[in-house]
């Protein structure tokens, strides 16, 4: 296996699936190997390297491969004509990339081989993330349709759509995935904690993406300078003000989580709403509203503590979610939003944003140009760091 991993690292970035295909054919007589990646809208799985990826697309919610993706469990389908299809989730630190589909002769389809295939899928996922720096191959497989230029810019500055550590799990999604322009989410983990930034820039199209790109990179620059979230907000506020002089601004929610103490903090600089599910109850977390980034020159930002216990689920929703209305002009928040949060309580954090946004799409009056974003964080905490939510 060490030789296989070295072969993957040394392979051209566009040839990873070829290396896996050749090795599995030599080891186990695999008759077919395909890497299927989830598209930006989380609706289909599409094959890497296919002449027409859309022609080979599989639905994410009704196919066997989609079920393996959703459950994050390897599956072996019933044998047909002496061949057993194996479906292995390809996931890196909680980020669900897709599924590795392998067809094996029945005589080689054993539990030991299935474990080896799962390891191959894990190694392949890590190498895909590295290879994406140098080839468009994997990006192309994620596109069920063409991205707008604004969406292209936004996806390039996003964190992954999910991330997991022992203390927490986080997932996020944007819609319309192929035409998003102003909403963005970003996170960074280190030995001490987690920092999360949710931003919503004004305007539309490329102008909104340019504004958000400036704000996100200003926040990252400040975070990497080692300052707290209040100063991160202040420095990003200055950057946006210097460019737009208050004509455009960015609604932002910054949060930081201390892994040792289990305490959480927030700076609310705009419209994203924070909700908490604790046990069977769901409620909006009250935060002190402060000025959006770039609205006024040299705004002062204050940090406040969030009431957080292990077992809590935090959800951040943009105005495209909570301001949506039904055909009967009923707002999505709070009643329908609370129902949606309750209905998804058994799903993992990585699956919740997509599920809520699909429910929202069936609820609202019409298709809207406004972005809709959901970020979900399940807080586990460290043992002994605090009480557990009932």
From TrEMBL:
It holds the Pfam family SpoIIE. InterPro entries: Bact_Sigma-Reg (IPR052016), PPM-type-like_dom_sf (IPR036457), PPM-type_phosphatase-like_dom (IPR001932). Keywords: Hydrolase. SUPFAM superfamilies: PP2C-like. It comes from the Bacteria. Residues 165-379 form the PPM-type phosphatase domain. This is Serine/threonine-protein phosphatase.
